[in-house]
Design brief:
387 residues, 17 helices
Length: 387
Amino acid sequence: MAIIFLYFALFLGVHLVARQFVKRGAARLMQLVACFVLLFGFFGFRNITVLNDTPHYYGAYYQLTHLKNYVESSIFVYRILLSFEYGYQVFQHFLIKYVSKEAFTIIIISSFIISWGNVKFISHQTRHIALALLMLLLSGVLFDQYCLIRQSFALMFFYAALPYLRQDRWKPYVALIVCAAFFHLSALVLLILPILQRFRICKRNIAIVLGIAVLISITVYELFNLAGLGDTKYFLMNMKRNTFPIGAVLDGTLMLILQLTCLFLYRKMGMTSYDKTTIWIGVCGLCVCIITPSFLSFFRLNIFVWPIIYLTFFRFVDADDQMTDYGALRQCQGLRRQLMMMALVLLAVRMAMILMFRNEWYHLVPYSFYDFSDRFHGFNMYWENNL
């Protein structure tokens, strides 16, 4: 666990070094390069025992490279038995056929894409790139992304689509979300955002949306049966659950606290404008948290929401951010610094508790790098089945 927190400290070091630069452009470039190297180095060369879904993607790639008919066939053939969306199937087949048959290729390439996508996206939200990434790491958001590769590819499309959503340009937004769905079907839920944006931000409308989420939570199993999805693996898996998902409730509570803190600072700083898109994304995140205790699989939808919520929260507690786009009349720098420190400390304590008592959520400990000299990785590609 000490290695993990030493890794976190490196981002704090990058942040402190960047503050010494006089020119903002130089500080931004240094953070871009340093943060990308840190992310890609840590996740791109991780062992297949690190992060829950790593052995599954590794194992699927490994098996397909040994099927001659598959390797020699067209990369555009859809294979329903693979249980992967079409876009990911084409991507994986392209790597196998034209890049490398080494199964670790999928881990390196996906880590490269996710690392660069996050660094680039965050660099457009704040000039304190390293500190924002530290918060996302401590929160566990980035660990989820590197674990859920297909859904993270879909998230990269959402990152690209978000500016169009904020400009009410729904055609390019919808096109990008449809592309995202070719990597993970869950991205289709993001098509609700342009509809929500047509509604005015007020207590009544927010209460209606949250009320609909409560209704879905109560009737979720009946809705699945009515939709003919009663035999899906996610439905059957949730039916077998016999324990209350305390973790899901705590996550929902945390999301609510973050959003209420932003609302408190919004009023405290005398802000006069707001981003409608961000508010509706936050409301959708709360809706997912309301439904998740009843149907745990819904929690994966929040992989699209958590980065936006944390980055919004980060901007609010970053004392150096003038928040001019929100029309802030007061800076409240002292209060914001205190909230920043408090948030980072609490998130660090939360992560330490997870690593000590719920390591199965991420399988981060013990961390190890992939051994390229070992020829027998294929034998433990589904290592967790033997625990």
